[in-house]
Amino acid sequence: MSEEIIKDVIVGENEDYIINMGPQHPSTHGVLRLEVCLKGETVKYLIPHIGYIHRGIEKMCEANTYQQIIHLTDRMDYLSAHMNNEAVCMVVEDAMQVEVPERVKYIRTILNELNRLASHQLWWCAFGMDLGALTTFFYGLRDREMILDIFEESFGSRLLHSFNTPGGLMHDVHPNFQNRIKEFISYFRKKLPEYDQLLTGNVIFQERAKGVGFMSKETAIGYGVTGPSGRGSGFSCDIRKIAPYGAYDKVQFNEILETGGDVFARYQVRMAEMRESLSILEQLVDNIPEGDFTAKMKPIIKLPAGEYFRRVETARGELAVYVVSDGNKSPYRMKFRTPNFSNLFVMNEIAAGCKIADLIAISGSLDLVIPDIDR
Amino acid sequence: MGLIKSMKDEDFGDNESLELLKKSGGNVFMTSIDSLLNWGRSNSVWPLTFATSCCGIEMMAAGASRHDFARFGIEVYRASPRQADVIVVAGTIVHKMVPVLKRLYDQMPEPKYVIAMGACAISGGPFFYNTYSVVRGVDHVIPVDVYIPGCPPRPEALLYGVMQLQRKIKGESVTNPGELPDIL
After folding, report:
1. Do B96 and A30 touch (CB under 8 A)?
2. Looking at residue A140, what is its pLDDT?
């Protein structure tokens, strides 16, 4: 009897304690709201609320021409701007049955890998900062500026360079392009071990990353978690290997797979991918063939009526573009399957049972870009 | 008008609107308090960690090693609006975000400033102004002090915008804070 009375005194013991993380929260990397239900310090479940940066890009595509759509896709996943552009370009090229010159394929692949490197560097500094290591922020962005310099020299833009156009590139790359990349490769090869010394081997970091946020291979496949986050659980999902595009069939590289499934495994996949990107760059940079920078295209692009589908590997996973055309100069319907959308909704599965402090590590390890979720 | 070290007034653009802040005459005691307060306020403008999209990445780059925000005294990004002086609206604001942004602004202590960074915050963006969900300019929601054009603006542009804000702060007076017109 007395036990029951004491039980009743604890106010709200059987009620859910809800806190809101976001929309303005530094660790959500944008405007994402997570409704977290807690029991003490432990997460019972969480509900992601999206739409705080919904700009209606898919609907806007229906009113724009294919050349204009390229510029919208930049702003979806701004850290993989180049890959997004390429996905739309490849859909149009497939539909028009245009064969792009070899030079274009090589340059596009090089830019993909540079963009992937820049994205992973930014992820590394933000992830370190989420876990309380401020130095990573300065180290990562210092090296990222080198890549941005290469971008700026060739395209005149640092972050969002709508450099691809259906059929090829906007213009040819700068004469310094190859030299700058070679400089960067030798520079970054020396700097990468520094990253490991600073963060990977850190005891505090390992304590917070190992064994946290376990995602099984079944969960990854079930939720469609792709990219480095999925590969950290052993889900082989690299589009560059499964369906090679661009010049990926001409280079030797490994698909990085880890079987740990925790935050640390996802961290290691991204670190290894940076090395892999460097080796891809090394193989390609000296072999850019001479030739045109664009195939011959009509000024007004009208896709023949039908349905078209293409997918690419962005820095965060699989981006698929699905176009329904009715023969006009703008698509009837355009659908983007963005990687971050699937990567976000697995969070409820893997965060349940974790402490709330680990939620920050988990959301950092999934490397979410919010405008890509909302479109 | 207070000067920014190593950059003359005529090197800046938009000197005409700053002229409006200049006041003739005034109490000797109050003006010296003004100059002391403005010196302090303008050299420690703490921004709120608030970024909705792409411009936030350039804002991060401006805070990092190469561009180094901290030279202008705005190094400390605060996660809580209670501790922030300036909100840099970096990115698109959609209708769902408006109440949140308004609340963040209201929670900031006076004196507070707003920088609209990038085309989206100024006018709804180079492409998104025509969408059903996007607010066509953040000045529909909160008053903006400095506009920085670009998509996204370079970190240097953000630095320039911050320097303009500092000059604006230096023109303020305790007796007549901000530049509220007499109609209000």
Report:
1. no
2. 87
What is the mean predicted confidence (pLDDT) over B76-94? Answer: 86
The reported pTM is: 0.86
What's the pLDDT score for residue B181?
40
> Would you say A66 and A297 are in contact if contact means Cβ atoms under 8 Å apart?
no
CB contact under 8 A, A79 and B64: no
Task: Specify the pLDDT at position A4.
Answer: 58
Question: In this structure, are residues A102 and A289 in contact, taking their beta carbons and an 8 Å threshold?
Answer: yes
Mutate: best of B46, B48, B50, B52, partner A, most A CBs <10 A: B52
User: What per-residue confidence (pLDDT) applies to A293?
Assistant: 85
A141–B57: do the CB atoms touch at under 8 Å?
no
| Alpha helices by DSSP H, A217-318 | 217-223, 227-231, 239-242, 263-285
| Closest chain A CA to residue B50 | A24
List, for residues A92-109, the tens digit of each pLDDT value: 988 888 888 888 989 999
Q: Are A211 and A358 contacting, i.e. CB atoms less than 8 angstroms apart?
A: no
Among B65, B77, B91, whose Cβ lies nearest the Cβ of A141? B65
Checking if the pLDDT of B1 tops 50, the result is: no
Model confidence at B180, pLDDT cuts 50, 70, 90, reads: very low
What domains appear along chain B, each with residue ranges and CATH number? 45-170 (3.40.50.12280)
> Is the ipTM beyond the 0.85 threshold?
no
Residue A149 contacts B, CB cutoff 8 Å: no
Phi and psi dihedrals of A288, rounded to 5? -65, 115
**Nearest alpha-carbon partner for A339 in A360, A368, A363:** A368
Q: Does domain A8-374 have CATH number 1.10.645.10?
A: yes
Interhelix angle A177-195/A102-130, rounded to 10 degrees, is 30
Q: Which residues in chain A are contacts of B158 at CB distance < 8 A?
A: none
Token match 């929670």: residue? B107
DSSP B69: G
Nearest CB to A138: which of B54, B65, B92?
A: B65
* Residue B158 token pair: 């953000």
